[in-house]
Amino acid sequence: MRDFFEYLRPEKTPALHLNLFRSLTPSVQSVSRPPHHPFHRFWSLFFVFAMTLSFQAAAQSYPSKPVKFVTASIGSPQDVVGRLFAQKLAESWGQPVVVDNRAGAGSLLSIQAVAKAPGDGYTVLVSSTAFAVTPYLYQNLGYDVDRDLVPVVLLATAPNVIVANPSSGIRSLKDVMDRARQGKKLQYGSPGFGTTPQLSAEYLFKVLGKIEITHVPYKGIPPLMQAAMAGEVELASAALPPTVAQIKSGRLIGLAVTSANRNSAIPDVPTIAEAGFTGFEDDSWVGLWVPASTPVMVINRLREEVNKIAAQQDMRDRLRNVGFEVAAGSTESFSALVQKELRKWAKVVKETGAKVE
Prior knowledge:
Elements (H helix, E strand, L loop, with lengths): L1 H7 L6 H10 L1 H5 L7 H24 L5 E5 L5 H17 L3 E5 L6 H8 L7 E6 L1 H4 L15 E16 L8 H9 L5 E4 L5 H13 L5 E4 L3 H10 L4 E5 L4 H6 L3 E5 L25 E9 L4 H15 L2 H9 L3 E2 L4 H22 L5
Parallel strand pairs: 1-2, 1-3, 5-6, 5-7
Antiparallel strand pairs: 3-9, 4-7, 4-8, 4-9, 4-10
């Protein structure tokens, strides 16, 4: 009973759960009774009590079957991070955590799949900064970004990086700007239209640098990396993790990372601010979402387990080696980050004129 009354405290009961309660009790709300009718109050409290017991039971037994992590294409930042956490969660829970890749339309297909899934905690979205970009690139989302999904926890962060093919002779962002201003035709590749690497590059080159450069979209990270190393394009903009090995081996030249600070995986690569371009930072991030009808106690259980894993040194080392920094934390802080990023990317999409083609 103590857990029940603790659960009813306003600061312990998220607005989402109250909205869920209201949506599940239309008949109670629509019946006309005096405001303080004792039976009305009794049955309302009884219903909340019964639902609380049900949610507690679900949380305590969660997960009792395999959990599915739905994410974007193989090799994407969310795929890499999702697989690392899926492995650790499976070990901790004793239940499989299966990664389901939904490639195509950026991250839209993966987001749609989870938005339409049952809210039982067994279908979880692993998405990235693309979650905050997608609403401004597609007219028909198929979901409501504010109502159909709720953030659970931030997993990790990593910058994007601008790289050059060694044979291009380009060794810095200054080289890129000088060549473009001399009228030389340059191309840069990205993982596709509307991805954050593309938008970061568009903002850097066209808004901050005010140069003309041609964008060449590829269908994901693997073909982009192959094209950049083969010299099909002089430059590429990508999430840092898939490029770390290539930069360390010298197959690609790191020109600048988009974060405020240098990344420990490639400490010799400067930030875009150090390279002379201030006014824009872009730390890509990866986090978890669930359908909005998911019980709050299940959400809490998932977040707490992720935070335990994030605190493990071997997990931190594995992520750092490929360019990620572990984040984790509270649901509230992640929700605030998502809202901030939605505002930021609305501005970037508008200023760059980016669109899905």
